[in-house]
Amino acid sequence: RERAVVALASRTQQFSPTGKYKADGVLETLTLHSLACYEDLVTFLQQSIRQFEVGPYGCILLTLSAILSRSTELIRQDFDVPTSHLIGAHGYCTQELVNLLLTGKAVSNVFNDVVELDSGDGNITLLRGIAARSDIGFLSLFEHYNVCQVGCFLKTPRFPIWVVCSESHFSVLFSLQPGLLRDWRTERLFDLYYYDGLANQQEQIRLTIDTTQTISDDTDNDLVPPLELCIRTKWKGASVNWNGSDPIL
């Protein structure tokens, strides 16, 4: 929270590739902009937002900006294992990259704080999780299947926006009520909006969540939309009304 680096593509080649590095049309055109004031960062991003939104390299620029802002040295220290990666098999982003974008630290886990594992021979392994309440949340279908446990620092973010890991890609749930997570009474009956960019979604999907009516866990999971299973990792047993939209199976 002291310095940010924003990577932007230029129209000119900034250096000549040598050695093992081969030109890819992106990295050799980058210019790096370092900002030490939050207000200056916001202004600079507003002026440059077109590169991220409609430019061909927006995803790459965002990722590189996050990496350089954290620094490669600190990212390696964030990993549970120094040989971890930000990009996994088949080009998928790893949990470390997701956490870097959500929280600013490339830790390997989604539970709260740090867990110590004692192997019994005096060796203790530290598994690093989320250190503080995140601005943006995270929900995972893997938690429904007991593969991981998402801590409250991600489940109850400062803003009612959640990145959702389900069906091999990421989508977004959000509420239009900024104060949704500040008063438990507002979580009795509320709306969440769903957006899946990979599906080229054109129509609005509004889900009404009712936590006063509980759904049994015995329901055949094959007939339950995975998104509902993700929602119930946060609001256990809640009923989900798709309000006329076709449930995504």
TrEMBL record:
Pfam families: MINDY-3_4_CD. It comes from Macaca mulatta. It catalyses: Thiol-dependent hydrolysis of ester, thioester, amide, peptide and isopeptide bonds formed by the C-terminal Gly of ubiquitin (a 76-residue protein attached to proteins as an intracellular targeting signal). InterPro entries: MINDY-3/4_CD, MINY3/4. The keyword Plastid does not apply. This is Ubiquitin carboxyl-terminal hydrolase MINDY. Residues 1-244 form the Deubiquitinating enzyme MINDY-3/4 conserved domain. It comes from the Eukaryota.
